[in-house]
Amino acid sequence: MPQPHIPFQVNPLTVRPAMRERGSEVLHIFTRNGRLIQPKNTDKTTHALRIAVDTNGALCMAKMSLYTLAMSDLPISTETVSCLVCGEKESGIEAPDLRDFEYGVPGTYQLRKCNACDQLFLSPRPTEADIMRCYPEDYHGYQTNSISKLYDLLTEFQMNHRFNKYLELLGKRKAAILDVGCGDGYVLGALKKRAPHWTLAGVELKREIAEQGQKQGFDIFCGTLEQCTFAPASFDLLIMNHLIEHLHDPLLTLKKAHELLKPGGYVIGEAPNFDSLDRRIAKKWWGGHHTPRHLFQFTPKTLSRLFAKAGLNTVRVSAEMHSGHWAGSVQNFLQDGRMPVKLHNGRAAYYPFLLAFFAIPNAFQYVFKKTGILSFIAHRPH
Q1: In terms of Cα–Cα distance, which of 12, 10, 15, 135 is closest to 78?
Q2: CATH placement of domain 140-379
Q3: 145 vs 311, which has greater pLDDT?
Q4: How far is it, in rounded angstroms, from Cα 180 to Cα 201?
Q5: For the segment 38-59, what is each residue's pLDDT rounded down to a tens digit?
Q6: What is the reported pTM?
Q7: Taking Cα atoms as reference points, which of 236, 234, 255 lies closest to residue 244?
Q8: CA angle at residue 158 from 152 to 161, to 5 degrees?
Q9: Which of 324, 320, 303, 323 is nearest to 369 (CA)?
Q10: Cα–Cα distance for residue pair 103/290, rounded to 1 Å
Q11: How many CB atoms lie within 10 A of CB 369?
Q12: Alpha carbons 331 and 285: distance in angstroms, whole number
């Protein structure tokens, strides 16, 4: 006997079993705006979405590949939020008309500023259910393969710079380190070479990326920091390089970090600096916007306030030498209809040369503490 349509929400599509005889697997696939997707052939449909439906019409299993479907047919689900740091409902628009110039995620977004605490946040923003669709397989944070020799040299310099900071905090003693948002374990591998006596672990949200690090033998939890199963008070150092701006609730994550740290342990990392010279010049093309993946923006003042609310003492928030946002700003400006080129991992072939070129103006910014990136250290009290 034919059964009625039963909707199931399967991120990012709504899938409805068609009117069918028992045992059949005929499906209608709709986007969120109700448009029916009709792939050109059955094989493509099967490849795009494999679904098993039991005789009661319940969805048993779904696995989909977004690459066979046009991005324009898959709008990102968004939500409107108020300030999650202080709870204030009122906010004003700080940066309108923000778009993704790197990976082409559809939609226009705006950055808002809390009227009470000055915290900056994206609203509307992608929902937690859809946020991973904003991180394609070629996302630069997942790629550790070489772009050019120049890029490799700059990356090695940055890694050595960061490692020296970790040494300042930990010395040569044995220590347990957790890299939050560790990707495929690249940083864990670099730390293992430099300090083999450290105990290393990581947290990565995207399963296929986490599995790459797990295959290298690293202890990587797949999920969010809040979901991780590591024992409380088990780490001396939590690394959060370019992480907190990506989080839906950074305060909640930092409270979890407080729980995982040993008394006297540290959180160390980097985040975009909204109070930077490059942001003021580049405006909506600023590389630090990284729309819609950067859900929050920070200044030294708002970052310190966030740590305090999580029970952490701010040790230092300072300007960091890095020309990445200058390079990203120029690339975004050119990609916005002026001189678009094919990007590899979200980067143009000329990107490494922009990094080198803007090292000089970045040094000038550093003198006035107005660089595009902030370096921070926070401490769990004894």
Answers
A1: 12
A2: 3.40.50.150
A3: 311
A4: 9
A5: 433 333 333 334 333 333 333 3
A6: 0.80
A7: 255
A8: 145
A9: 320
A10: 10
A11: 14
A12: 8
For residue 232, cis peptide bond before it (omega within 30 degrees of 0): no
Whether residue 292 is preceded by a cis peptide bond, meaning omega within 30 degrees of 0, is yes
Burial status of residue 230 (CB atoms within 10 A of its CB: 0-12, 13-18, 19 or more): middle
The residues with which 125 forms a beta bridge, in sequence order, are 79
Other beta carbons within 10 angstroms of residue 315's beta carbon come to 14
**Does residue 199 contact residue 223 with C-beta atoms inside 8 Å?**
no
Residue whose pair of structure tokens reads 């079993």 in the numeric block: 17
- Boundaries of every domain in the chain: 8-73, 78-134, 140-379
Q: Residue 234 and residue 274: Cα distance in Å, rounded?
A: 33
* In the block, residue with structure tokens 């630069």: 140
Mark 110-138 as b/e (b = at least 16 C-beta within 10 Å).
Answer: bbbbbeebbbbbbbbbbeeebbebbbbee
**Residue 184 pLDDT greater than 50, yes or no:** yes
Task: Count Cβ atoms below 10 Å from residue 101 Cβ, excluding itself.
Answer: 25
CA distances from 15 to 53, 243, 274, 280 (A): 11, 33, 41, 44
Cβ-in-10-Å burial (0-12, 13-18, 19+) of 373 comes to: buried
Pair 243, 181: CB distance under 8 Å: yes
Could you tell me the CA-to-CA distances from 72 to 67, 107, 296, 351 in Å, in that order?
A: 12, 10, 25, 27
C-alpha angle 117-274-312 in degrees, rounded to nearest 5:
55
Q: How far apart are CA 62 and CA 64, in angstroms?
A: 7
Tell me the Ramachandran region of residue 34: left when phi exceeds 0, alpha when psi lies from -120 to 50, beta otherwise.
Answer: left
CA–CA distance, 367 with 325 (Å, rounded to integer): 17
Paired tokens of 289:
């916007």
Distance CA 20, CA 17 (A): 8
For residues 290 and 102, give the distance between their C-alpha atoms in angstroms, rounded to a whole number: 8
Tokens of 97: 């008309």
Q: Which residue has the tokens 């947290």?
A: 203
Average pLDDT over residues 5-29: 37
Parallel/antiparallel/unpaired status of strands 219-222 and 125-126: unpaired
* Arithmetic mean of pLDDT, 153-161: 81
d(CA 171, CA 162): 14
Of 225, 205, 31, 207, which is closest to residue 131 (Cα–Cα)? 205
